[in-house]
Specification:
Layout: E1 7-11, H1 21-33, E2 38-44, E3 56-60, H2 79-90, E4 94-97, H3 102-113, E5 117-121, H4 126-133, H5 141-153, E6 158-161, H6 164-173, E7 179-181, H7 197-203, E8 211-216, H8 225-234, E9 240-245, H9 250-257, E10 262-264, H10 271-276, E11 280-283, H11 292-299, E12 304-306, H12 312-315, E13 323-324, H13 330-342, H14 344-361, H15 364-376
């Protein structure tokens, strides 16, 4: 069988209209790979179902009852879905798992059972996501989810991780399969600095005089947006706006809406327009792997303030291309935001270095080419 004839099945537990790092990776992978291989997506269906322009798209019916992971779509446990998964596994050569819930776990099992080449990309750690998102009553499931996840990883042919430290952590937790590091990338042409900040604000309907503090991503408990809300409340500026680009749990959205000058956009396809309107970007999350949203903000030349988790601990250099804050301390976060706003020289340095970091070290072209070589070897 030649390289051009290879059939790759991409399995994900999340898909459009949601917008997150996993979906953006899938989009980039399909866009840059479809000419060389035959691609099929196996994803949950929302609404009418949005098909990929670069891959055959198979949809799984979803359930509102089964919610294994917060804010992620849940595959219904039906014979119809089981049949779709089994048939898709049998008719493809390589099973590319994006995680992190039921569909991915079942696809891994069937891929292993039918002796297919199964490759897992760790976009998130499902047990951390579950632990941070669920009420304490359900947190005892965290250990179970971790064990099942690691079992799935060990049923893979190999595992892809976005940074070296995660590889070491997974080995300590019992992942025995070979792991390769493949960083995510950013489209630096699409995500570029605003040429006119005032016009960028007007473009999305924001007063050009307002100071915009922004966040991009899911609205859920593990994202720790309450600390951002509290920090925003403490800022003393007369004209300020908290811009939340994303959607999620209604309970969390209601908390954010309780403060003045908070705008929640829902899922949008033009994230770059909203990033360009921001003055400061904050990523306050309890758990992250890479945080593609932070990299995109940096590519737009935004000064970023982040919690010290995941890969951000490595690509953010304190006082050079971003700032850190203790993830539970809204007072410190408020002071860091004020410092960036009040110190133009610091703001300029962080902005320029943030853009350089992404442009030099995070290329979709290099990342996808490496992953494609590993899949097809």
């Amino acid at each position: 069988m030649t390289t051009e004839q290879k059939k790759i099945l991409i399995v994900s537990d999340t898909y459009r209209p949601k917008v997150d790092g996993t979906i953006q990776f899938i989009d980039q992978f399909c866009k840059r790979t479809h000419k060389n291989v035959e691609l099929t997506l196996l994803v949950p269906k929302f609404g009418n179902g949005e098909k990929s322009a670069f891959a055959n798209t198979l949809f799984l019916k979803t359930s509102k009852i089964i919610v294994p992971l917060p804010t992620y779509p849940s595959m219904a446990l039906s014979w119809e879905n089981f049949k779709i998964i089994k048939t898709a596994i049998k008719t493809n050569d390589i099973i590319f798992i994006q995680g992190p819930a039921i569909a991915s776990m079942l696809a891994t099992f069937y891929g292993w059972r039918y002796k297919k080449r199964v490759v897992t990309y760790l976009h998130v750690l499902p047990w951390e996501l579950f632990h941070q998102s669920q009420k304490k009553l359900f947190r005892f499931f965290t250990t179970f989810i971790r064990k099942v996840s690691i079992l799935c990883y060990n049923r893979s042919s190999f595992v892809l991780v976005p940074y070296h430290e995660l590889e070491r952590s997974m080995k300590k937790l019992g992942v025995k399969r070979k792991m390769y590091v493949a960083k995510l990338g950013v489209d630096i042409d699409r995500f570029s600095p605003s040429k006119d900040k005032r016009m960028s604000k007007k473009k999305i309907g924001i007063d050009s005089e307002e100071i915009v503090i922004g966040y991009v991503g899911r609205i859920s408990q593990e994202k720790n947006l309450e600390v951002l809300k509290n920090a925003f409340d403490k800022l003393g500026y007369e004209k300020k706006k908290l811009l939340i680009v994303g959607d999620g749990a209604e309970e969390q959205k209601e908390v954010l809406k309780s403060i003045n000058n908070c705008q929640i956009t829902g899922f949008v396809n033009n994230v770059e327009d909203y990033l360009k309107a921001m003055d400061v970007f904050v990523q306050p999350s309890h758990t992250e792997t890479t945080s593609l949203a932070t990299l995109e903000a940096m590519a737009c030349g935004l000064p970023v303030i982040v919690s010290k988790v995941g890969f951000m601990k490595q690509y953010i250099v304190k006082e050079q291309n971003g700032l850190f804050f203790p993830k539970s301390d809204s007072i410190v976060l408020a002071s860091k935001i004020s410092r960036i706003i009040d110190e133009p020289e610091l703001r300029k340095k962080l902005s320029e270095n943030a853009r350089k970091t992404v442009a030099y070290s995070f290329s979709w072209e290099r990342s996808i080419n490496r992953i494609k070589r590993l899949l097809l070897e």
